Amino acid sequence: MGLKQNLHTLKEKYKGTKMAPAFNAIHTFLYLPNEVTHGGTHIKAADDLKRTMNIVIMALLPCLLFGMFNAGYQHYAAIDVAKGITSEFTVLGSFLTMDNFWIGIIKVLPLVIVSYGVGLLVEFIFAVIKGHEVEEGYLVTGMLVPLIVPVDTPLWMLSVAVIFGVVIGKEVFGGTGMNILNPALTIRAFLFFAYPTWMSGDKVWVYDAVNRTGTADAISGETMLGTYAQNQPANYDLWEAFFGFIPGSVGETSAFLILVGAAILIFTKIGSWRIIVSTFIGAAVMGFIFNQIVAADIITSSSKFYGLMNTVWYEHLIIGGLAFGAVFMATDPVTGSQTNKGKWIYGFLIGFISIMIRVFNPAYPEGVFLAILLMNVFAPTIDHYVVQGNVKKRLSRTKVKTA
Amino acid sequence: MSKDIRIKKGLNISLIGEAEQTTTQHATGGFYAIKPSDFHGITVKLVAKEGAEVKAGEPLFYSKSDERILFPSPVSGKVTEVIRGERRKVLAINIAANATQEFKDFGTKDAASMSAEEVKNHLLASGCWPFVKQRPYDVVANPNQAPKAIFVSAYASAPLAADLDYTLKGKEAELQAALTAVGKLTEGKLHVSVGKSANSPFSNLKGIEIHKVSGPHPIGNVGTQIAQIDPINKGEVVWVITPQDLVVIGELLLTGKFNITRTVALTGSQFRKPHYVTVTAGAKVATIVKGNLDNDNTRIISGNVLSGNHVKEEGFIGYYDNQITAIPEGNDYEFFGWNKPVFNKISTSRALTFSWLTPNKKYDLNTNTNGEHRAFVVTGSYEKVFPLDLYPMQLLKACMYKDLDEMEALGAYEVAPEDFALTEFICVSKQPHQKIIREGLDLMREELG
Q1: What 8-state DSSP symbol labels residue B43?
Q2: In chain A, which residue's Cα lies nearest the Cα of B405?
Q3: I want to staple A269 with a disulfide (CB 3.0 to 4.6 A). Which of B3, B144, B269, B349 is the partner?
Q4: CATH code at B70?
Q5: What is the pLDDT of residue A43?
Q6: Distance of alpha carbon B71 from alpha carbon B37, whole angstroms
Q7: Is A23 within a domain?
Q8: A47 touches B at CB < 8 Å
């Protein structure tokens, strides 16, 4: 009771001052505010934006934890490969170990902390300057960012990208709910175009690989996409890829845990199942078309597109960031399509274009984030035509009458 | 001759405090008030000055836009005070009722032998015209327009709403007289919607098109029924009358008296004994709820919890309302209320909210907003509780940025603020949907007429 009363007194004291939004952000984090309805409905449903965002974060946690273990696992596995040691893989014995988790703590956790720290600082500054409440959008963005960057991303680089992404991707449009591009993907795109050498290649996916380059202890870890792009056979089997024991961005590797997250989002009715399903359908269709092109001998193994084009369509759904993008990025309600019909089209095109970029852009074979950003831009257009359909229907009703 | 209408989209909000089907008589006398704010869009021209003696049915004021539209006194007594606000706008006209009620005599009429013009003039002269409301814009109807149809919803689906089959029982004669008269006002049909399984007093009445409706709230909203039966197009007007007002019209025709007395449901968890009371419109809330209300941190609402108005115990029941709801205020903090599992509140999601497990449970909701006001973020949830064939979020946004063409195209003519009550209830961003729609409609009315 004491804390509640003290905080209430403080809130009244800061009311109307510049610092009120900053204080309220922390206060409402502890307590659901004492605000009552005035005008309009006198009762309100239990959900608010904080609760909604919180569910997304919970859906992301399995991926984060897995990513932490995987950071260590990939590190030690790469060292073993470099030394020529082979060992039997068991989940408990070689994956869920404290050594692996420790790498996760020293490498992944700082990414999370920096992402949240820098991003929320920017949000607080904007909230105080513009005098609005701190909105919850960044709670999810801040969790997404560390999961979609390579584990060896330097923290300063991440900070710069986060500041860019939050300011240019969101705040200039007016904050949460007003942005056109997904802020997390804006951050990712900034990193990709500003520091391309840190975002692709065979070094950045494994902790310490960059530092060791050129030394006797050099290690490397190529993602499956990278391998395919170089027309080499896969270095991991499909089950390893499905469960995620492969190199890649921190949280995107485990298709299995991403599906668990998808199940949480769909069950709680927070994420749009329409977008998730249609994205996978779109990707499968494009993958299948490419498979058919290869089967028809139009593209042969001498082509540089052969490796990824020949990848079986269902494998496309598992490798790279497609699953993560479909479940956690494309479903962002602010930047995605807003109408139900539009969501089908929007998701389908994301999947379709993702695989297209993936195949035709072997320099960096990850098309998902570009495809989603592209569709973010077109989402209002899709919605426009869907809504026009409704408008036309309404107009035709009058015509039938007068005719 | 009945047609079935069934909707799937919507949400029933079941609350504690449903009115028990017993009726007590509220004593006449005491204080009454008419609030012009109950008649949206009407600019008041006072007739009865302070100190004037009025009979029940005598006009207190008329509409500035059409001086034929009279607003009568519900009781006989003395106008004690005219309360004015900014720019001398009339906020309320207080009347002290006499112990014995005198009614102005309008003469008995035989509805069947009246012409349309006579019906209209009689309703205008007797002060019954404000009962006729129009769509689009959800305001008192313009008597110069011809409606394409008239709609009556005799099925209430709002939370804790008065059971119309109970409150209208035995009023068949009045209803028939009123319907016969009102039916002459339109070239089109007179549509009446009743509950599917209900034993409605309307069932055997003549001259009407009966529709049996079923499904979740807002099936009882007349706007939902219009959209299902005969949607409004640009340039068309429909009129809407509530069944309880038809009774008043019917009684006027049969007896010549304007007697605006209704059976009002006292509902909500803060009433010790929720039940029905016979009340004259404009009565003081305190006298209606006396001895029955736990008024400790209580929100008293004239109307239902979704679209009603907040009134004080010293305030007065709204002119159109047939329900008073009392629920607890929610002005307290809740520790980690935004992330802990919730069992005692209603939600349409399953975000650690468990109301989906117990669809038949009755809830004791309070007035807490359960979160702060935010920009629109979540999409796709409104559509699940919104049965009209239009895009609610797009229309709301069009109203917010005041694009008249877009509002028109998206179907603003078809909606009333109450149609957006459910989307407002479930809104994660806690946006005031009904207010946004009201302001949008007002703007359209001003600009497009």
Answers
A1: P
A2: A391
A3: B349
A4: 2.40.50.100
A5: 92
A6: 12
A7: no
A8: yes
